[in-house]
Design brief:
Elements lengths: L16 E2 L11 H10 L12 H11 L6 E4 L2 H12 L3 E6 L4 H7 L4 E6 L10 H7 L5 E5 L11 H14 L3 E4 L24 E6 L12 E5 L2 H8 L9 H11 L4 H22 L3 E2 L6 E6 L8 H7 L2 E2 L1 E2 L16 E6 L3 H17 L1
Parallel strand pairs: 1-11, 3-4, 3-5, 5-6, 6-7
Antiparallel strand pairs: 2-8, 7-8, 9-10, 10-13, 12-13
Length: 360
């Protein structure tokens, strides 16, 4: 359909504002920008293939052992490396959720099953039902908070799923890339439980929380340090560039940056949710920096993606998320996702929505 698998496709049109991605609206932290400017002359050197300093800083940040951490060229790089390392026979993926899990798994011949999230339950994860759905030896991929829904399962529910994976002889791949946007990340992150759960690996990234999408930096924290060691030797030797490693170290020093981010996101999420609902859209609950909403029925305003693109604004058409396809309702019911920005830009997006609603 030409929209691509993900947001951020600003390279095939003159886009003025991109709301299709879920990146920190504050942009790169000032400390990271300053570090990059000062270190540019050193980029002629090869990067450390073991990411030594970055891993030391990450271990201190999470209060864990260095041996449990593996760095990569973004979280997607690690998803594929994980699939190629183990080549699982079967895996369970939520629907809707991030598409790269399924693509990576299918690339190694894995059979992928889907666990449908119910719209009448606001796409929330029911951990007990999901645990009962698992089969022997099956991997479970859980995006927490989930993309594109924006909801997170509390730590106790994640532990229930981890124990189910252990009993079934499977692996829980827990994607926490949006976790830093939660108001209380410590109530949801499973990193402090990893030492007692060797059947769990956690994906994290600097991409969204520190607005470092172009630098490509992600990492995995593993419950089993031996498993981490095996994963570490997969992929190319210099998968994490020197500027990416330096930027990651600098970002971890920005102690107040994420607190400021959470305050901004909470305010803008509630503001935008209320105004989208006033325009007749069905807006689903979110705990992070993006909103999933539905345009439906007699109030449907055609293809919002196309009408906004005509105004040089990009949002995420969710039609290619499994579970959100238009199907028989194509043209009448469509799902969209928007990343939240600062108030001035959010007002511009809202103004464009109002124009479209009025014109239709």
């Amino acid at each position: 359909m030409g929209y691509g698998l993900h947001g951020g496709d600003i390279y095939h049109g003159k886009i003025r504002e991109d709301f299709s991605v879920n990146i920190n609206p504050l942009g790169l932290p000032l400390g990271v920008i300053q570090m990059l400017r000062e270190s540019v002359e050193g980029w002629s050197l090869y990067p450390d293939p073991e990411c030594g300093e970055l891993i030391r800083c990450l271990a201190d940040y999470h209060g864990t052992q260095r041996e449990r951490i593996v760095c990569g060229n973004g979280a997607a790089d690690l998803i594929y490396r994980l699939a190629y390392l183990e080549k699982p026979g079967q895996a369970l993926v939520l629907a809707p959720s991030f598409s790269e899990y399924e693509r990576a798994l299918m690339s190694v011949g894995c059979r992928v099953r889907h666990f449908p999230l119910r719209e009448d339950k606001d796409f929330r994860v029911d951990a007990e039902v999901l645990a009962g759905y698992l089969e022997e030896g099956e991997w479970l991929f859980l995006c927490n908070p989930n993309n594109p829904t924006g909801l997170a399962a509390p730590k106790a529910q994640v532990e229930l799923l981890a124990e189910a994976c252990r009993k079934k002889g499977g692996l829980l791949v827990l994607d926490e890339c949006f976790g830093e946007f939660l108001e209380r990340p410590e109530d949801y992150s499973f990193t402090d439980k990893l030492w007692e759960h060797p059947e769990v690996v956690i994906l994290k990234a600097f991409t969204k929380s520190y607005a470092m999408a172009g630098l490509r930096l992600g990492y995995m924290v593993c419950g089993d340090p031996v498993f981490a060691g095996r994963l570490r030797v997969t992929g190319q030797p210099w998968s994490v560039s020197l500027p990416a490693q330096e930027a990651g170290v600098a970002a971890l020093r920005e102690k107040r940056f994420l607190e400021e981010t959470r305050r901004l996101i909470k305010t803008e999420r509630e503001w935008m949710k209320e105004r989208l609902a006033d325009l007749g859209f069905v807006v689903f609950p979110s705990q992070v920096n993006f909103l999933l909403f539905k345009d439906e029925g007699e109030e449907c305003h055609g293809n919002l993606w196309e009408k906004l693109r005509e105004r040089r604004i990009l949002i995420r058409d969710c039609s290619n998320f499994r579970g959100l396809e238009p199907g028989e309702d194509f043209g009448r019911i469509r799902y969209y996702r928007i990343g939240l920005k600062k108030r001035e830009k959010n007002e511009k997006l809202l103004g464009a929505f109002k124009e479209i609603v009025k014109d239709s």
